[in-house]
Design goal:
The chain has 419 residues and is an alpha+beta fold. It is 48% helix and 10% strand. It has 18 helices and 7 strands. A hairpin with a 2-residue loop joins β2 and β3. The protein is globular and about 75 Å long.
Length: 419
């Protein structure tokens, strides 16, 4: 039996990339504090490859997934706190028998916490995030950002009693180790609004100072995003797994955003006026993003393969749909892949979108037509192109796409989306 291993010890958590029977496996020890929640002491998953470079990329991806699971496990609250929060929210009188039940089962500390929450002396913040987000009058993508920000900061402030000016200043200092100043300011503004909601809902007070600090400007080298050249696209495509290959192919030949690709369903593939199109009409960034994009001739049988055997309502891609951003795992995959191949911060998945726009404009395609393909607000127009039928005909868009969006290095290699 062939068995080799690469061991990493980060944050005192055992991580291993191990070769068994010519196939690499990812292994990770579960931290002691959440083993009861996870139900295991060590996690193991096959990476389905014997290639060490590809295994390393998939290993990083799997570690990211597992660490997200660990984070969520730590946010799961005991049932008795959920019950106490419900009592407080509904202004129900606290039953002494409930306190005694918690005391007998879990001890004095748990009973005191139960009483504190139920009588509104304190509030468990995580239990009220969903209610807060549901009452927001915002588009779903904005609500998703609010949820991510609150989930991040509530790890530090699980209860209202933890929120003080001193603790917030300390959080800001610590957060600067892995967050930009702009991100910290956004999270802090979101948290302030959430705490105001908590104070109103539970009729409590919080005297913490949420003033966004004036950060000292830190000189950093700006990152200039660039387009992806054909040679780079080939390198990325060749090293990607099949799912990421398909995302790259669609992005390279349509200019669609990562989230738009991830939300495609079988019913998104339509034929309009004898032109086969991708109908983008779900959760979109702006009204201008609602559009129909003709499918490039090199992309047709990739799309046909992805829809084959699926129901009309099925998604084209099997992604985790329980989180806020289903395509985050794909973004992580792309980031890990491009880093492993030596690409810098200037290359991101969105670079394919910039590349498509650049190819169209360099070929002399009308700027408004290019905007319509990409779902941009039309330059020089206050209204923009809000739906496909207000702009160019689909046949004109199809001609512009087939003629001018070109990845010759990919076609030379005879990859699946070549004719």
């Amino acid at each position: 039996m062939c068995c080799t291993a690469s061991v990493i010890n980060t944050d005192h958590v055992f991580q291993m990339l191990k070769l068994r029977h010519r196939v690499y496996f990812a292994l990770l020890d579960v931290p002691a504090d959440i083993r009861d929640v996870i139900g295991k002491t060590r996690l193991s998953k096959t990476l389905e490859t014997s290639d060490p470079k590809l295994a390393e990329v998939r290993h990083l991806k799997q570690l990211s997934i597992w660490k997200d699971e660990f984070r969520l496990a730590r946010l799961r609250l005991p049932e008795y706190l959920t019950k106490a929060n419900l009592i407080a929210k509904t202004d129900t009188e606290v039953d002494p028998a409930d306190i005694k039940q918690v005391l007998d089962a879990l001890g004095e500390d748990a009973a005191l916490k139960f009483q504190s929450i139920a009588t509104k002396q304190d509030v468990v913040l995580e239990l009220n995030v969903k209610d807060y987000i549901n009452q927001l009058d915002q588009v779903q993508s904005s609500k998703d950002q609010v949820e991510r920000d609150l989930t991040y900061i509530i790890q530090r402030f699980p209860k209202l009693s933890d929120v003080s000016s001193k603790n917030i200043r300390k959080w800001v200092k610590d957060a600067r180790e892995d967050r930009t100043d702009n991100a910290i300011a956004r999270v802090l503004r979101t948290f302030r609004k959430f705490i105001n909601y908590i104070c109103y809902k539970f009729d409590v007070e919080c005297g913490a100072d949420f003033t966004v600090p004036k950060f000292d400007k830190v000189e950093s080298e700006p990152v200039s995003r660039t387009i992806i050249e054909p040679e780079q696209a080939l390198k990325l495509y060749t090293a990607a797994d099949q799912r990421l290959k398909d995302f790259i192919a669609i992005g390279a030949f349509t200019g669609m955003r990562l989230g738009e690709i991830g939300n495609l369903r079988v019913r998104s593939i339509i034929t309009d006026k004898q032109v086969k199109c991708i109908d983008i009409n779900g959760e979109v960034k702006t009204d201008c993003s609602i559009r129909r994009v003709p499918i490039h001739r090199h992309l047709l049988h990739v799309i046909e393969r992805l829809v084959s055997g699926k129901a009309d309502s099925d998604y084209l891609f099997d992604l985790p749909r329980t989180g806020n951003r289903p395509t985050q795992v794909v973004g992580n995959d792309f980031s890990a892949l491009k880093t492993s191949l030596g690409f810098g911060r200037e290359i991101v998945f969105h670079s394919f979108r910039h590349s498509v726009e650049t190819q169209l404009l360099r070929a002399g395609v009308d700027a408004k037509l290019a905007d319509q393909i990409l779902g941009h607000k039309t330059k020089g127009s206050s209204e923009g192109v809000k739906t496909y039928w207000h702009g160019h005909e689909l046949i004109d868009m199809k001609k512009a796409i087939d003629t001018n969006i070109d990845w010759p290095k990919l076609a030379v290699q005879g990859l699946p989306f070549d004719d």
